[in-house]
Amino acid sequence: MLPLENIKILSFGTGGVVPDAGKIFGELGADVIKIEAKDNLDFMRTIGPDINNIGQFNETNRSKRSFGVNLKTEKGRDIVSQLVKIADILAENFRGGVMKSLGFDYGNVRKLNPQIIYISSQGFGSGGPYSEYQAYGPMLSAASGVLSIWAQPDDPYPVGSNAPYPDHMASKHVVIAAIAALDYRRRTGKAQFIDMAQTEVAASLAGEYYLDYTFNKRIPKPMGNRSLYAAPHGCYPCKGTDEWCAIAVFTDEEWQSLCNAIGNPAWTSDPRFSDLLGRLENIDELDKKVGEWTSTLDTNVVMETLQAAGIAAGVVQRATDTLADPQLKWDGAIIELDHAVSGKRLYPGVPFRMSGTSPLKSTPAPLLGEHTEEICHDLLKMPDDEIKQLLEEDVLYNPENAKGAGGGMFG
Questions:
Q1: Which of 61, 70, 359, 380 is positioned for an S-S bond with 365, CB 3.0–4.6 A?
Q2: Residues 309, 300: contact at Cβ < 8 Å?
Q3: pTM (2 decimals)?
Q4: What is the predicted pLDDT for the residue at 406?
Q5: Is residue 218 part of a domain?
């Protein structure tokens, strides 16, 4: 039995946070139903010519079912209301006010199902002066202060990342909060409303810098790959073009092990490098010397030499390197899924194993409305002629009548 088997989740998610959380719920065994509309798509379905063949969407929306429904119609809202009544969790991350306009804000949903766990995850939360502001992962990095330190010291502006890091961190917090709420409901019989501001999740990543300012009135500046607590600490050039190895040395004992591993060249006896404080004060010269050694060797040789001496070191890999990485292959970290439209593609697998349960696994992302009829049959016990009529009226959508769909997010 899977950990969340028999748990039903309605996902009104768009973009990254709630869809990514839904993927994890699905991998844990929950029946995750993605509520989708033909004319108001999850914006991740709109970043390519085919709504069913979008790489980012198909990664984030694995392990769930798609229920296509027109929420602009009273019949459509009535059908979703029936799903709300049998759901354990409802999760949404639309901007403020959207769920209320659809009639599925917490107040209305709780009337339909007093036991439901309702998760609301806006960029800035459900209250306050920014609650209705639009938000995306890279912007949350800026609003939280993380972006201000995400660069090399000599960069003219914050560099950041095109990966929406706060989104993916927030999705994990959604899962943790939901599992905690399920346990709370099991023990007390009481439901929960969970309000999670994504920018607050991003801000939690920089807690040490807030403390530094609180006690020392020191505003942090970008340090690149360097650390206040380790030296050498960074990515060092290796033999070849654009080849690098990451190295981290925290203690004086580790420093001595590094010196021994590289043959104790004369510069390693420099008294300026004898302790951590000295290495930090002379970090430019230290990095230059370490880089001179690494640049003569293959990246794997650097990693293996230092790892053999107990030093944290790892090749800076590209996607092709990662796919061929022997450790990740041994872990089964990369899996192949056969999607109905995009075909066989490689995806990250479930990154942990659990004893005493069935193996956790992913299923391909759904086509828009792929499971509408199935859900109507199995969960709502609707007769075939009623389903057919609702499809003809464009109240419900399956992959056939959803062809040519377009548009943005709800609202």
A1: 61
A2: no
A3: 0.92
A4: 65
A5: no
